Amino acid sequence: MSFLKLKKLIEEAKQISLFAHARPDGDALGSQFGLAGYLRSRYPDKPVFICGSDGLRYGDFFPLKTPVSSEDIRASLAIVLDTPSVKRVEDQRFLSASKIVRIDHHPGGEDFAILDIEDVTASSTSELVAGILYKWDSTPLDKEIAAYFYFGLLFDTLCLSIPSVSEKTMAIAAWLAKSGMSVSDVNQAYTQVPLSLFEAVSALRSKLVYDQRGLGYVVLTNDFYQSYGVDIQAIKEQVHVLGEIRELKFWALFLQDENNPQEYSGSLRARKTPIRALAQKYGGGGHELACGISHLTLKRLNELIEELALLAAQSE
To answer: What fold is seen in the domain 2-191?
Structure first.
């Protein structure tokens, strides 16, 4: 019923604005551009705006966004993608929209929309949105639109390699491939990085601290990002390289805040044992096996590391 209600809201709206979280990642951008392309193709007379930052760290895969006026947002149906809470939406002007819808795969989302479509079994918001479109019409999408959704799906599943990948995920990926898009081109767009980031990741690996209880972590300071000339968000997204180490049950990447050097953010990952409750204890959240935490002092960071090590010792 919620899918039909969403379609009704879209059809009734005079115009639509799409929002996502701050520092949008591949899934946020993939779901934004994929849904925007679909809406523009199905409703050519209905203006559709994409709000928030550009995806420059993904090369030229995502087009640059066009500035959106506050007047246009106020007259829009706002669709917030891949974002569980009000404070995490990058462009806070979404609150002035005529109506608000939220579509997300993160658990524990806030109730701030007239329609909330949350599916924590979806591997990504891109999978979730593409699945909704499939229910409306199973005709293959335009290949450019499908490529955006597929990129987002690849991003949040690390190329279909994490536990949240399901039969449904693979079915959506297969449907997207029916568009005629180049699966190889999208995979390469996701996996290729500039030389500066490649060199930074090589250095990141060398800074691993290994705890024999099954924990590995890296702590990086502002000097590191500056020395390699890389964006902090691009580094943050490389936490997955630590997961390549077979001996690790948990791994984490901690980054010093560029604006407040007294604080760190943390990206936590687990092989099998849920860590969401631990992340929430430190003011963070996310999925059961993948969480984020902000505003950690160095003292709290070290306390968290010890708790992770203890949890690793108790885990299989």
So the answer is: inorganic pyrophosphatase (n-terminal core) (3.90.1640)
Q: Tens-of-pLDDT digits for all 316 residues of the chain?
A: 688 999 999 999 999 999 999 999 999 999 999 999 999 999 999 999 999 999 989 999 999 999 999 999 999 999 999 999 999 999 999 999 999 999 999 998 999 999 999 999 999 999 999 999 999 999 999 999 999 999 999 999 999 999 999 999 999 999 999 999 999 999 999 999 999 999 999 999 999 999 999 999 999 999 999 999 999 999 999 999 999 999 999 999 999 999 999 999 999 999 999 999 999 999 999 999 999 999 999 999 999 999 999 999 998 7
Query: Does domain 195-314 bear CATH number 3.30.750.24?
Result: no
Q: What is the SS3 string spanning 131-193?
A: HHHHHHCCCCCCHHHHHHHHHHHHHHHCCCCCCCCCHHHHHHHHHHHCCCCCHHHHHHHHHCC
Question: Which residue intervals of the chain bear CATH 3.90.1640.10?
Answer: 2-191
